[in-house]
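Exam review. A common question shows you a sequence with its structure tokens and asks you to describe the fold in words. Practice with the pair below. Do the first one on your own.
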Amino acid sequence: MDRVGKTPEVEQNIVDDAFTTDIIVVGSGAAALTAALTAAASGRTVRIIEKTAKIGGTSAMSGGMTWLPANHYAQEAGFSDTPEEALQYIRQTAPAGWGETEDPLWASQVENGPAMLKLVEAHSPLRFKLTSVPDPFRRLKAPSQLESFLSNPSVAKS
């Protein structure tokens, strides 16, 4: 009701189904696009909003590479890194004090990363392969994580 006790007339808007969506993803980096793919794979309608003219966010600078411990490619190649070893590695190589706030995120990454990789490959044309890159933290007495680097050749070439 307005100040004089009258109910204002409300214009009813009819929403066009072409503009309805279940999920809006802001940004188009690797995490955003994976979230969008996950939602779409579960039957949701998704809209991605990107502020720039190109997709990729900061992930576009990675050359299609990612570090994903305990992935199925490493296991198939005979490497035996585990989520626990990966979490130890992250903790040893992270800047001082970061673990206080970031440890739950790191734990989630190493626990859920392998399933995420399988989901991405099952529901998109992206395919990854193991790639050999130098470990920037090899000076530390941390478990070697060289077998966990993956590249996407189609992205790396673009």
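Now try the second one, then compare your answer with the model answer below.
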Amino acid sequence: MARLIREIHRLMGYPDTHWNTLCLPALEGMEEEKLELIRRALIVRQGRYLPPGAGAEEIYAQRDVWTYAVFAAALGRLGTGRIPPEGRAWLERHHECMEALEQTRRSTGPIHDILTRAGIQSERRFLDWLKESIRQGEIPIGTRGAPLHIVQDGLLLLRPKLFRLFDEDWERAEQKLLAEIPENMRTLRIFAPKNAPLLKFKGYVLPKEWFSHLPLRTALEVADLEEIHA
């Protein structure tokens, strides 16, 4: 395990201060099989010019942040480890990196291709992805245009808006969710804001208890949404 971590450090090429802050904490305690997959992804990354279509100077200037994007995407797809806030802030300063990471969540784009060639497949549990995205603050909740809303008895997952964040084929994403939840939760429910009854929110409601350990920040009060019964 220590050998693989040293090899990942070598492939990333970061000085010890950056490595110890941005990378090592996410790898400690990880299974050897997953460490090997991350190592393979970094080997594949070395043979790619990123960002795509950029000139030599830009590729050289951004080599470290794109390597970190591959590292972060591998962690996310393997469902283990988290990059620290400093790492996410670094990525967010590079628009193309963030766009490529978003494409990866939809199983497309240059980083997705790197992970696939390294053997890190995109088969993920929908609920694992949803909880991790909430934990990372990547999905807005309760704000205008958000794909998630708090309702009286749980968390409303809007259809198809939320599913499109997981997969370009949103119906396939929806089927993944339905396969992971009990039958009594598979009914589409409709809600509307009290002050805008013509505005409909349609989706699935999951129990709050499933997300009790996560930061469900919302700008919309529960009482502002009412269920519409047919």
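Model answer, second protein: The chain is about 50% helix and 10% strand. The beta strands are 148-151, 154-158, 189-193, 201-206, 225-228. Full marks require stating both points clearly.
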